Amino acid sequence: MKSSPDIQLAESTEIGSTGICHLKRIWGKAMLGNQLNEQLINEQELDNAIINILGLGLLPTYQFLFGQKPSFEAFEQWVVEMGGGSIAAEKISQCNQLIVGNAQVNDGFEPDVLSAEDIEFWNEHGYVIIKNAIPQEDCVAGRQAIWNYLQMDENNSESWYTQSHAVQGIMVPLYREAVIDKNRNAPRIRKAFEQLWGQQGLIVTTDKCGFNPPETNGFTYRGIGLHWDVSLARPIPFGTQGILYLTDTAANQGALTLIPSFHKILESWLDGLPADVNPREFEFATFEKISIAANAGDFIIWNHKLPHSSSPNNATLPRLVQYINWYAPLQKVQADWI
Ligand SMILES: O=C(O)CCC(=O)C(=O)O
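# 2-oxoglutaric acid complex -> structure
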């Protein structure tokens, strides 16, 4: 335990009024900032897991903690408000199991979502498409939630280019909304991730939505180029990313673009790069890339070793999406960002 004149860093088992383990420690670490013992950085996976289980979103949580410097009581109140006024007992228990053990797994029988061919395709290409991962009515409601958030009208193309402050690049910081939560927890999506990770007990990230409207004479694509969202420090652990298409998306409609099979060569490719070449600035001009067309309700999972990005929308309708990823909560991530 480390202390500052004002703040005593809580043990992970200490609970406040919400009954959630580790929350006070997360708060305390943010308040202590750089007075913190370096070793505690190793708790990042645990911190992220608690924040994700509670559906808070990493960015909103740290924006609140660092921006507001709240008392612990105010932080707890914010956590409860973000949960819509209460926190489900099962979420509290899921958090606490990470600290005190005894993790539960879903022991009900759920049919596989990915076939043997899907898994083979995944192993070979590093991505897989789950058709009809959510029902059409949840696509309609998901789209509407995004349109409402953006204060735009699906049927009025002029409105797609207004209120652009609500969109960060192509990202829409809409995290919590009934249908967005429902899609995030869609059983077919969770089951597909469990098959790829080969385990249950995964947790889901509370991630953003996305809006990528057609380019016009006055509007150019606001996304970034091919990239990785994982550190390239070795060893690079297994990891996934996922995107739910909420609109039918043609290949030229801003679709997810990636370099298939790159997960199989990433490390050797890195080894072969000249020392003065930054892999994150590499152009990949000679590599085969594909832009994945799929329908509303389809979900794409890709191995995080694949360079990937969205793409310019050269069609006539916007692409609306939701980002969803399930992962093993305590799997180590590299602390160094390379
Ligand atoms: O929106 C997309 O198609 C890709 C998103 C992306 O690049 C990411 O999630 O890192």
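# post-check
The first strand starts at residue 127 and ends at 130.
Residues 1-5 have pLDDT under 50 and may be disordered.
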